Amino acid sequence: MADDQIRLQKFLAACSVASRRKCEELIEAGAVKVNGRTAALGDKVSPHDKVTVHGRRVVMKRDRLVYIALHKPRGFITTMQDEQGRRCVHDLVEEVGERVFPVGRLDRDSEGLLLMTNDGELANRITHPAHHVAKTYRVTVGPDVPEEKLDLLRTGVELDGRLTAPAQVTVLTREPSRTVLQVVIREGRNRQIRRMCEALGLEVRRLKRTAVGPVRLGMLHPGSWRYLTPEEVDKLKSAAGMERK
After folding, report:
1. Minimal CA–CA distance to 114: which of 95, 132, 88, 140?
2. Is residue 107 annotated as part of the catalytic site, yes or no?
3. pLDDT tens string 133-159
4. Distance CA 59, CA 56 (A)
């Protein structure tokens, strides 16, 4: 029946394959088949269809929804597996008991708060720029930062031919050899803060995400994770524009 069909990327996200955006990338890459046929964006499926990703069948399950905060250390990549054998965040959350995937990314040299979940709808809303969920970073740059460059960070830096959205930038400490900034952005461009700083000739020496929306990293140690509290989940859904159930 057509009534029980849903878009393929939504089905994959519900099966905890990845976030909806990542599922779209898998479809575009030809990694997804439906009933033996290579799928395309826009395809719809029902729970009765045979859907495979990289040859492995995926089935929609009604697992409990899990939301965790991970303190990603530097040197780990934000993926669940890596063909090159590099350390990835999957290695840090094997004890969760449910298959969770990262919400957004932190590059290999960055650290800090990484949300992980099997709630594909929430993950999609947090990462989609239309919902403007704030991400807060502590950024150590060198050397001192002139006021005019701080103003450019706040008002917008041209990346890929268009300006970044306004950011909140606060100077936390100034020393002769370095400046520590708190930067809050509501976009999610690839390596955005590093590229903004590089465009202004600033050397990023350390980049640490300290919050996503209302969820804060706090005192969580590098490599450790914790479950979000129900209150944090409710606030996160509200920040992402989801109705709480």
Report:
1. 88
2. yes
3. 999 999 999 888 999 999 999 999 999
4. 10
- CA 141 from centre of chain: 23
Q: Supply the DSSP string of 75-99, one letter for each residue.
A: T-BSSS--TT---BGGGGSGGGSS-
pLDDT digits (tens, 9 = 90+) for 11-27: 888 787 888 888 999 99
Q: What is the pLDDT of residue 1?
A: 37
Residue that the structure tokens 């979940």 belong to: 117
Q: Which amino acid is at 100?
A: V
The C-alpha atoms of residue 91 and residue 240 are separated, in whole angstroms, by: 28
Residue 10: closest CA among 121, 99, 100, 104: 121
Which 3 state secondary structure label does DSSP give 42?
A: coil
What's the rounded Cα separation, in Å, for the pair 100 and 122?
12
d(CA 199, CA 193): 10
Coil, strand or helix at 38: strand
Write out 177-222 in H/E/C secondary structure.
Answer: CCEEEEEEECCCCCCHHHHHHHHCCCEEEEEEEEEECCEECCCCCC
Q: How far apart are CA 76 and CA 82, in angstroms?
A: 11
pTM for the predicted model, two decimal places: 0.75
Q: Collapsing DSSP states into helix, strand and coil, what is residue 235?
A: helix
**Exactly one of 3, 49, 91, 107 is catalytic; which is it?**
107
Residue entry with tokens 């590093």 = 194
Higher per-residue pLDDT: 118 or 16: 118
Side-chain half-sphere CA neighbours of 226 within 13 A: 15
Longest dimension (CA), the chain: 68
